[in-house]
């Protein structure tokens, strides 16, 4: 009976020991992915910012500029691209909507971002665009890969339509969460006018005819939770200028927008709570269950060997019955 129990425990030990690396190195890369139907929004604010008044073409200080960013998954488009790409794909339709303190639109820039659901690497397909212009992204945007590493990553900038490194600058703690801090500086670069302008009748084409150009620079900062690869906080030191041309009335340049853009407090709290929840799920697949199964397999193996050793011990000899004394003979 002991030997039968020993064999059962040995089989279970082998099963859990084999399941441990299988879960981490086979199941996790296939199970951990961004859902195709994900929807999320984010509100950012730049307080005491500078904004161009297109009525007077003069920059003025304003109390607040609000940027609403939305990302909505297009499931039908993702499934269509998957048939030719041969892998799980996510299609995000994004919109960055900027409004002034009076609630009026300053700009709105749509995007379509197509990427691998597991690795977050860009997937190039028809429809990939920024503000209606076809683009070919290299590097990440919006989200880092699962199990983010302490290294620089290539990051796509939607304003310039270019990719450049975003640098790992150290490990920090943000609202009780261990994060990796990344920073990217985009130098002054000539960029396109938004297709949707804040003043009716003004178009990018009409501005171009005046000879006025738009320039942009930013310092981009992200605090990224490394297990999920999700930013728990982000901000930008953002500046835009209009330069040259007759539109400026002889001036060399005028500030179109300048401010320190930060996530609004309620969205910070929501994001931190969501990331903590998702972090636990990822850790179940990468750490808690694999190590738990390995420890359990080791304990079952030890118990199996213990039972086997005790099952092989020889039984003590049974005492013989005393014999009756024999009569003596002469």
CA-based gyration radius: 32 Å
Main β sheet profile: 12 strands, antiparallel
Task: State mean pLDDT (0 to 100 scale).
Answer: 91
**General form:** elongated
Helical content class: 25-40%
Quaternary class = single chain
| First-residue to last-residue Cα separation | 56 Å
How many separate helices?
4
Work out the strand percent.
35-45%
Strand order of the largest sheet: 6-5-4-3-2-1-12-11-10-9-8-7
List the helices and strands in order: HEEHEEEEEEEHEEEH
- Helices and strands: which structural class? alpha+beta
* Poorly predicted runs: none
What's the number of extended β-strand segments? 12
Defining traits:
330 residues; alpha+beta
Structural overview:
There is one protein chain. With 330 residues, the chain is of the alpha+beta class. The protein has 4 helices and 12 strands. Strands 6-5-4-3-2-1-12-11-10-9-8-7 form a 12-stranded antiparallel sheet. Strand 10 (213-225) and strand 11 (230-243) form a beta hairpin. Helix 1 packs antiparallel against helix 4 (265-311). The longest helix has 47 residues, at 265-311. The radius of gyration is 32 Å and the shape is elongated. The two termini are 56 Å apart.
Topology (elements, then pairings):
Elements: H1 2-31, E1 39-53, E2 58-73, H2 75-85, E3 89-99, E4 105-116, E5 129-130, E6 133-134, E7 153-157, E8 162-174, E9 177-191, H3 204-209, E10 213-225, E11 230-243, E12 253-263, H4 265-311
Antiparallel strand pairs: 1-2, 1-12, 2-3, 3-4, 4-5, 5-6, 7-8, 8-9, 9-10, 10-11, 11-12
Helix pairs in contact: 1-4
